[in-house]
Specification:
By secondary structure, this protein is an alpha/beta fold. The protein has a single domain, classed as TIM Barrel (Alpha-Beta Barrel). The chain contains 14 helices and 13 strands. Helix 1 runs parallel beside helix 2, helix 4 packs parallel to helix 7 and helix 7 runs parallel beside helix 8. The mean pLDDT is 97.
Amino acid sequence: MAAIFEETKINGMTMRNRLIRSATWEGMCDQDGRPGEKLITLYRDLARGGIGLIITSYAYVRTDGKNLPGQMGIYNDAFADSFKLMVKAVHDAGGKIAVQVVHGGGQTDTKTAGRKPFAPSAAKVGQFPEIPEELTRDEIKKIVAAFGNAAHRVKAWGFDAVQLHGAHGFLINQFLSPLTNRRSDEYGGSIENRARFLLDVYRKVRETVGADYPVLIKLNAADFIEGGLDIEDAIYSARRLSEAGIDAIEVSAGTPSSGGKSPVRIKITKPEREAYNLEMARRIKGAVDCPVIVVGGFRSYEVVEKAIRDDGMDYISLARPLIWEPGLANRWLQGDRRPAMCISCNNCFAGGLQEGGIYCATEKKENEKAARR
Ligand SMILES: Cc1cc2nc3c(=O)[nH]c(=O)nc-3n(C[C@H](O)[C@H](O)[C@H](O)COP(=O)(O)O)c2cc1C
């Protein structure tokens, strides 16, 4: 029977347990997307904390795919030394690290992207800050190539795996969603056509890194927006990716404009509110042959254990709990099985937007209170 703390392999990458740090934008890179000491220290601490695999922040494959300040960029060979230091810090601490690669598409603004944003269609939708420009087929091919070039850097710089960001309303998700993809060419219309960009990106990345390098994807199981991607279409994409040789699918859901069903839900106050993508992940697991990772609201050891033992999940990934407690995996391993301290308030975002990097605002408050006592 599968257990949290057992060693497993994904396409040759050995992981010490079934716990993964899900991609988390930290807002700690310089304006060009280059990581520095602060971020490297954060990853080193995560590795020391015992997590099985660290997935970095989403990293833009072209500057016009940038989405947030301080975001990581993986488009420039001149960043090699900084990224190699990151890999070394994690490996020296016994960890594994993958880079999540992204293009923001229409989910950005002119100021951040440095040009008018691109998207599958020039759609006026809540998730786009501006009406984007419709991508030409020529531009689509260039963006596919940029994903390939990014994956080449990820492998060449020593990372253990690459993850495509196919969730949370970014460009791959925009192609999959009928709401944001209204094209009438071979990239739009049926799900076969809407999944074409995703599969083109996957194949380009696979061709670049080779058969024996782990390629993962984070995929939305549903957008929870009227007219957006639904579970049936997500299952189709997952099955096609599995047939094409993807090494693992991480299941998430929602976009920043999905209200209470955003990818980052709040008020996870009791175990019944945890694991909010688990049912959809179970359906995807039933349709694919590759390992499935599920993310979203995992807080208790028992809920994690059950998802692996009874629901067939191969891996559980966590984001917010590790901001307060980078050592959560080791804490659980050593027998302290109390739930994660995270209260899911989402106040971690503010530091990234305003203070040069995310941090747990609740932990800070608690520490200040303790210091006054
Ligand atoms: C500060 C912050 C930054 C995030 N950045 C990313 C990201 O870069 N890529 C991504 O796929 N998800 C990102 N997420 C979403 C998380 O990976 C995860 O899917 C979500 O927070 C739910 O998991 P949790 O309940 O364990 O936090 C971010 C979440 C937070 C709180």
